[in-house]
Amino acid sequence: MKKWIPIASGLATGLLAATVFFADFSPGDRNEAIAESSKNKTNAEKVYVPFGEKDEYYLFASGGHSGQMFIYGVPSMRHIRTVPVFSPDSATGYGFDKHSKEMMGGFTWGDLHHPAFSETNGDYDGKYMFATDVGNSRAAVMNLETFTVKDIIDVPNTSGPHCAAFVTENTEYMFLPTRFAVPIGREYAPLDDYSEKYRGVMSAVTFDEKKEKLNIAYQVALPPWSYDLSDAGKKVSKDWAVMTTYNTEEATTNLEFNASQADRDFIVLFNWKELEQMVKDGKYDEVTGQKMIFPEKHKGGMYLVPVAKSPHGVDVTPDGKHFIASGKLAPTMTVFSFEKAFKAIENKEFAGERNGIPIIKYESVMEKEVNPENALGPLHTQFDDQGMAYTTMFISSEIVKWDPKTGETLDRVPVQYSPGHSVAAEGDTVAPDGKYLIALNKIAKDSYLSVGPSHPESMQLIDLRGDKMEVIQSAPVNPEPHYAQMIKADKIKTITVYPKDEKNPDAVYSQEETRIERKGNEVHVYGIAMRSKFIFDAKAERPDQIEVKKGDKVFIHLTNIDFDQDITHGFAINGYDLNIEVQPGQTNTVEFTADKAGTYPIYCTNFCSALHQEMTGYFLVKP
Amino acid sequence: MAGKKLSILSSGLIAAAAALIAASLFFPWWGMEFFAPQYPEGLNIIVYPDKLEGEIDIVNGLNHYIGMKGFSEENFPELTYLKYLIGGLALLTLITAVLRRKKVLYFLIGLFSIGGLLGVWDLRRWLHDFGTDLSPTAPIKVDPFVPPIIGENTLANFITNSYLGTGSFLVLAAFILILIPLWKDR
After folding, report:
1. Interface residue A611 vs chain B (CB under 8 A)
2. A267-297 pLDDT, tens per residue?
3. How much of chain B is in helix, strand and coil states, percent to nearest 5?
């Protein structure tokens, strides 16, 4: 026992000495401050992606009326790329080359709303991204190997497909319902005839992956209401879809008041398999070249569910059993049951009909109303891996986490300010990841350096992994963060160079094959771009010049023969308002009339090498 | 002792050498790998007896800045007949194994040595030619240079590593195999 004494006394002395010399007896505030700053550091570390490493998720954020898609990395919130979709973009020559110019169809802008990934079995497959244009009623598809738009279609009979695009479980369809009711064919009709002649047409759009083409399969002439947001069913509800609608008052002026009168608006619940069958059975009218189902003539497959007034979001739970709607003017989230709805439809528990569409009794389909205290303006709900719901509160500027099974409020976190939509990591699939949620804020007053009266909007990253939700990063964005999709980075497989396409008659892959051919007043140039020169006709005295006559129709086919990643070349004609891009291995065409005589230098716009500045030529137009 | 038959073991070794030489036709003999900050993954020129592989077009695209001629299979007439020479050597080696005669072996070793030296000389000639016959109109002027057959070379921001490929090692092994009988059956 004796030998323990020196050891114990030694330890005690050491402890005492250490306490005297090193212990911190200063007031508690400082400790708190240190704790606070180390907490901040922890948040910084949570979002920091060191150089050499990459983000875990891609965020595809709608660019609203910029007509573009903004691509971010999460959790760093670094802006990686802007992809032009509905608006021309001189940085990439989009809207100037033949293919993209034709796709734009003469429009110069678009209001890009809801982006949606292609899906396989209700999960993102990382192949394609769809988007709709509220501004000019179009739909687009972007290929995720190249992050370029492959097809854009006009959607006839429709004005502003706002609540699209939402895709079905295996990308069979995406549905594009309209925000603004118009007469079929957008013909003239006085607003006094609104209820009779106007329609809120919904289009069923299909996508042919082989040809990368969008197509309208059929349309439904819904009542003249405004369709707002939608979601496709999953698993048990996979043949179904839901969408919210307001202005069931059918007001035609001062909608602020007149479309906010009815206590209940509707969710449109439809079975797309049944609609598909109706079209197969010929239960449709041929209108403006479209197969149009008129619900009052051809019944079936469509139902109305009463919902708290002026709803915005409607979201299907990951298990596909419920859909949650939020009335933006009534501070309530309502959980509805698909199974109850199916039963009610079977038992015909209807409370009359509107415009030929049966209304399911509210009590027969509603499961629970959830109303967190002082939470105002519920807009949009996303889900985590545990099936918990996260709803943005537009008016009270917060995210509320709650349990759709019990209705219990679990957590709340304030955001700055006015979140419209939010996006959770794969949060609208059958298998959400549950790590992050991003609040897409409409306002960001005082958050960043001032840029004048119009402040940047913001996106705030919220960590869902702890016991409490925590805002860990904020990023300013261009107008406007409207809706977004977040996908695990490894699901996207980009290519580094375009493969050679020996069948492409416009492509030339060697200098010797370059040539300029004249056919009457058409001049076809088959040229190449390579570091660091253009060759339009290898046999000419000056291989980098193109000479035409005024009035000639000029077709310049340009192939980038640098099969080397990231060696992109641009092609601009100085003073001719032309600029296109050729990515490695790509062939692109610009088509125009040489209507101005004179001397116009040609140059490479996309920095390509040390001698990029020398990558020039001349475009000569003889009077 | 000349004219005496080689042992069975020696004959077997020579036969194995023939097999190695034949196998070498299917492997790269020599290569160069280029690294630069913008090409951290490296660019390759890989030389087989009858073809070139690697990022030849990209290397050529870069080399044109210093006025170097482009590499292509057409530029190397050797690639059209080298495989026959090597095949022939493999056949001669096999015949030596069958004949089991020392004289023939000496002849083979001599041929092998001369062939090997010629090969090295030829490669060196090409490296000298490409590195020193630079176009006078090249945008970037560099001093003439000759990359080593094996080893490192630095040019601008590129570090080049030249190395022998599997094919060369197979042939070297074959050479060692045919030398063994000299000692074994002395």
Report:
1. yes
2. 999 999 999 999 999 999 999 999 999 999 9
3. 55, 20, 25
pLDDT tens for A575-610 read: 999 999 999 999 999 999 999 999 999 999 999 998
Distances (CA, A) of B86 to A285, B47, B111, B149, B176: 77, 14, 12, 20, 17
Residue A464 burial by Cβ neighbours in a 10 Å radius (0-12, 13-18, 19+): buried
Rounded to the nearest 5°, which phi and psi values hold at B102? -60, -40
Task: Check CB contact under 8 Å for A563 and B139.
Answer: no
In contact, A181 and A159? CB cutoff 8 Å: yes
Choose among B55, B61, B140: nearest Cβ to A531: B61
Whether residues B55 and A611 touch (CB distance < 8 A) is answered with no
Tell me the pTM.
0.88
Would you give the end-to-end CA distance of chain A in angstroms? 113
DSSP code per residue over A165-188: -EE-TTSS-EEEE-SB-EEGGG--
pLDDT tens digits for range A74-100 = 999 999 999 999 999 999 999 999 999
Cross-chain residue pair B57–A563, CB shorter than 8 Å: yes
Question: Choosing among A511, A532, A533, A564, which should be mutated to test the B contact, i.e. which has the most B CBs within 10 A?
Answer: A564
What three-state secondary structure class fits A331?
A: coil
Q: How far A564 CA lies from chain B's nearest CA (Å)?
A: 7
Token look-up 């915005």 returns A312
The whole-angstrom separation of Cα B50 and Cα A573 is 45
Beta pairing, strands A311-316 & A366-370? unpaired
Contacts of A561 in chain B (CB under 8 A): 57
Distance of alpha carbon A364 from alpha carbon A337, whole angstroms: 9
Residue of A nearest to B58 (CA): A564
CB A576 within 8 A of CB A595: no
Residue A30: predicted pLDDT: 46
Instruction: Return d(Cα A514, Cα A543) in angstroms, integer.
Output: 9
Q: Are strands A302-308 and A290-293 parallel, antiparallel or unpaired?
A: unpaired
Contact residues, chain A, for B61 at CB < 8 Å: 530-531, 562, 564
Given an 8 Å threshold on Cβ–Cβ distance, is A611 in contact with B58?
no
**CB proximity A563 to B under 8 Å:** yes
pLDDT at A309: 87
Q: What is the pLDDT of residues A19-67, one digit of tens each?
A: 655 655 554 454 455 455 556 668 899 999 999 999 999 999 999 999 9
* φ and ψ at residue B36, rounded to 5 degrees: -150, 165
pLDDT number for residue B1 = 44
Q: Measure the CA–CA gap between A54 and A576, rounded to whole angstroms.
A: 40
Name the helix (H) or strand (E) containing A18: helix A4-22
Find, in chain B, the residue whose alpha carbon is nearest to that of A566: B38
